[in-house]
Design brief:
Blueprint (H helix, E strand, L loop, with lengths): L2 H8 L25 E7 L3 H4 L3 H11 L4 E7 L3 H9 L18 E5 L6 H10 L15 E5 L15 E3 L3 H17 L5 H8 L5 E2 L4 E5 L5 E6 L8 E2 L27 E4 L1 E2 L9 H5 L4 E2 L2 H15 L3 E5 L9 H15 L2 E3 L10 H7 L7 E6 L3 H6 L6 H13 L4 E8 L6 H20 L10 E8 L16 H14 L5 E5 L2 H11 L6 H9 L13 H10 L5 H4 L14 E2 L4 H12 L27
Helix pairs in contact: 3-6, 5-17, 6-7, 9-10, 13-14, 14-15
C-alpha cells in the first residue's frame, strides 16, 4: 500500500495513529535483507494490543536476530476495515505498511476467547485461507500461543500449529527450523510442520485424529504422524532472572490502556485459587532479583520517557523482595517525579506503610478481590482470606486517607446459593460500617465503595474444569438479587453481561467442531465480540443452530472425571490427579495452603525450578 493511499484513508477514520507505525523504539529493517518476515498479530485494537507485555518481549527477541524482521499487526477498527474492504486493501503490518499475505509466519496471541472471531476476520482481511487445509506453499504459516492456546481445539481447523507455554525460547526454535526448511527449497508445508512437531511445546492439530461418542463426548484422540507426541508439554523459562527482558519499549503516539513501563517481577502464583487458570498454567513461581529489576527499570524509563512504572505479576505482594524493591524504586522515582503503581495486592498481606510510600501525593482508588461474600464459599474457591482480613485492610485504608475502594466478586461459583450472593451486599455494608466507625477527623471525606461482579466461567486446567456454568437466567437472577440487597447510596454496583460470559464459556471448553462455527460467524459479520457495541448474542445463537451445534453441551453440563477433555493432550505440569483432589476438597470447602507454606504436590516440580526448589 502506498503512503499516499494510506494517508487518504487515515483522514477518514478515528484514531489514525492506530495504523501509522513509526513510533519511538519501533524497529526498522530492510525486508529484502532478512530471511524470515514474521507478523506478530494481536486480535484486538491498537490500544489494547500495545498494553500487552508479551508482545513487547517477543517483538524485540525476534528483531534482535539479523535474519528476521518481526512486525506488528493489529485488528483494524470497523471504520478502518470498511475503508480497506472498499478499496480491496489487505491487512498490513505497522512497521512497513506491507500486506502480510506473503509473510513467512503469521502468529496470533490468544488472550481472550471472545477474540477468536477477530482471528478469523484478520485472516480473511489478509487474504489468507482460513482453513489450514486450504493453504498452499504460497501462504504463510499461521500459528498461535498465549493463555487461551492451552485449549487449542476450537481453532484447530484454522491454526497450523500452536506454541504451548512461554515463548522466549520456542519462538526462536520454530524460526530456526523455518530458515532451514526455506534453504532446503521449502517443498510441501507438511515437511516443515513435521520438523517443528519434534520441538517440545509445539502442537500441530492436523497430526491428530479425534473420534466422538454418540453422546458427543470425545472417544479418542490419536496422533496420525510419527513426529506427533501423544502429550505436548508447555515450555517455561526455568531461570526467570536470566530470561530476556527488553531494555527499550515502543512508545505509542496515542494513548493506550496501560501507558507506562511494566516491570514483570515474577511469573506464576503460589496461591492456588481454584477458579484461576493463570495461577495454574504459569506454575511454578519464578522471580527476578531485585537488582535485575532496578537496573531494568532505569533503562526502560531512560529509553521511553515514561513517568510511571507498574509492577506486573499475578500477586504483587507475594514477591519476596517487595520491600527492598519498592524502596529502591521509590528512591529512583521520587527524585524524577515518576509514579509507581502496585496492582494485584493481596488483602491478607496488604501493607499500609507500603501504600503510603507509593502514593504520598494523591490517594487514588484501590481494588480488593474477596471473590465471594461468605467464608464457606471463599473456602470452596481456596481464596484463603477471612472477613477479618478484609475489614482490617479497609480500616487501615480509611485511617490512611483513602476514600475510594472497589470490591471485586464473582457470581455463579460452584456450590453458590442465593445466601452467598446476598452476603456480598452484607460484606460491602460492613466495609461501609468500618468507615463510619472511624472518627471524622481521622478519615477521608466522601466515601465511595464500588461492588463489581463478573460471572464465573469454568476454565481448562483448574479444579473447576468439570463444573457446569450457571445458566444466563440464573446469573441474571443473582445480579438482580444482589442489586436489591444493596441499600446504601454510598455503595455502587457494577456487573458483567452474562451473555458474553456464556459465549466465553462455550469456547473456553470447546472442541474442534467449533471451528466451523467461527468460520460461519465471521462470514455473518461477527467481530470484536468483547466490545459491547459489536457483540450480537442472537446472531451467535442462530449460527450455532445453523451449524448443528448445541452450545449448552460445552458449558452447561457437569463432566465426569473419566471423560476425555479436549485439552487432555496438553501438559501444563500440574497433574490431572491434583486437579481432581482439589475439586473434591472444594466440595467439602477444605482449603489448600499456598506453595510457600506447604507443597501440595501439584506436579509443577517437574520443571526443576522456581518455588519448588527455593
Amino acid at each position: 500500500m502506498s503512503f499516499t493511499e494510506k494517508d487518504k484513508i487515515l483522514a477518514r477514520v478515528q484514531k489514525p495513529t492506530r495504523y501509522t507505525g513509526g513510533e519511538l523504539n519501533s524497529v526498522k529493517k530492510n525486508p529484502a535483507q532478512v530471511q524470515v518476515r514474521f507478523a506478530f498479530c494481536f486480535p484486538d485494537v491498537y490500544e489494547i494490543a500495545m498494553s500487552h507485555l508479551g508482545i513487547k518481549i517477543l517483538y524485540h527477541i525476534l528483531n534482535k536476530r539479523e535474519d528476521t524482521y518481526c512486525e506488528r499487526v493489529f485488528a483494524p477498527w470497523t471504520d478502518m476495515e470498511m475503508q480497506m474492504r472498499e478499496r480491496n486493501m489487505k491487512l498490513f503490518a505497522l512497521e512497513t505498511g506491507d500486506e502480510i499475505t506473503h509473510f513467512d509466519i503469521v502468529a496470533f496471541t490468544l488472550q481472550y476467547e471472545l477474540s477468536y472471531s477477530n482471528v478469523v476476520n484478520m485472516l480473511d482481511l489478509a487474504d489468507i485461507p482460513i482453513r489450514t487445509s486450504e493453504r498452499t506453499e504460497n501462504h504463510p504459516f499461521v500459528c498461535a500461543g498465549g493463555p487461551c492456546a492451552y485449549n487449542p481445539e476450537p481453532l484447530a481447523e484454522i491454526v497450523d500449529f500452536f506454541m504451548m507455554g512461554e515463548g522466549e525460547e520456542i519462538i526462536n526454535e520454530i524460526t530456526d527450523v523455518y530458515i532451514q526448511w526455506k534453504q532446503n527449497g521449502k517443498g510441501e508445508r507438511k515437511k516443515y510442520l513435521k520438523e517443528i512437531a519434534k520441538i517440545e511445546g509445539v502442537y500441530v492439530p492436523s497430526f491428530y485424529d479425534v473420534e466422538y461418542n454418540e453422546d458427543n463426548t470425545i472417544k479418542s484422540f490419536t496422533p496420525n504422524n510419527p513426529n506427533a507426541k501423544p502429550i505436548i508439554t508447555k515450555r517455561i523459562m526455568r531461570d526467570f532472572d536470566e530470561a530476556y527482558a527488553p531494555e527499550s519499549i515502543i512508545v505509542p503516539f496515542g494513548e493506550i490502556i496501560h501507558d507506562r513501563v511494566m516491570l514483570e517481577i515474577f511469573r506464576g502464583c503460589i496461591r492456588g485459587c481454584r477458579f484461576c487458570q493463570a495461577g495454574y498454567v504459569y506454575r511454578p513461581v519464578r522471580e527476578r532479583k531485585v537488582q535485575t529489576l532496578v537496573s531494568l527499570s532505569e533503562k526502560l524509563l531512560s529509553s521511553s520517557g515514561y513517568d510511571e512504572i507498574s509492577l506486573s505479576s499475578l500477586s504483587t505482594s507475594d514477591y519476596r523482595g517487595l520491600k527492598e524493591l519498592t524502596d529502591a524504586l521509590l528512591e529512583l522515582t521520587q527524585k524524577e517525579k515518576i509514579g509507581l503503581s502496585l496492582p494485584s495486592l493481596r488483602i491478607d498481606n496488604f501493607s499500609l506503610e507500603l501504600m503510603n510510600k507509593v502514593q504520598k501525593v494523591r490517594k487514588s482508588g484501590i481494588t480488593f478481590a474477596p471473590e465471594a461474600g461468605t467464608q464457606r464459599l471463599r473456602d470452596v474457591i481456596n481464596k484463603n482470606i477471612t472477613e477479618e482480613n478484609i475489614l482490617d485492610s479497609v480500616k487501615m485504608l480509611f485511617r490512611g486517607g483513602w476514600a475510594n475502594v472497589k470490591l471485586y466478586f464473582m457470581i455463579g461459583l460452584p456450590t453458590e446459593t442465593m445466601e452467598d450472593v446476598e452476603a456480598i451486599a452484607h460484606l460491602a455494608q460492613k466495609v461501609l460500617g468500618v468507615y463510619f466507625d472511624i472518627p471524622k477527623d481521622e478519615r477521608a471525606k466522601n466515601i465511595n465503595i464500588t461492588v463489581s461482579t463478573s460471572s464465573f466461567v469454568p476454565k481448562p486446567f483448574t479444579p473447576f474444569q468439570w463444573e457446569a456454568q450457571n445458566t444466563r437466567d440464573m446469573l441474571v437472577e443473582k445480579q438482580k438479587r444482589l442489586k436489591g440487597a444493596i441499600t446504601s447510596r454510598k455503595i455502587r454496583y457494577n456487573w458483567h453481561d452474562s451473555k458474553t460470559s456464556y459465549l466465553e464459556g462455550v469456547f473456553a471448553r470447546g472442541d474442534r467442531r467449533l471451528g466451523e462455527v467461527l468460520i460461519a460467524a465471521q462470514k455473518k459479520g461477527c467481530k470484536f465480540d468483547g466490545w459491547d457495541e459489536h457483540f450480537d448474542f442472537e446472531k451467535w445463537m442462530s449460527i450455532f443452530k445453523e451449524c448443528g451445534i448445541n452450545p449448552d453441551f460445552y458449558n452447561m453440563r457437569k463432566r465426569e472425571y473419566s471423560e476425555i477433555l479436549p485439552w487432555d493432550h496438553i501438559n501444563v505440569g500440574v497433574s490431572k490427579e491434583f486437579f481432581i483432589r482439589e475439586s473434591e476438597k472444594a466440595k467439602k470447602a477444605v482449603t489448600t495452603a499456598n506453595c510457600r507454606e506447604k507443597c501440595a504436590g501439584c506436579g509443577a516440580s517437574v520443571f526443576n525450578g522456581g518455588v519448588c526448589y527455593e
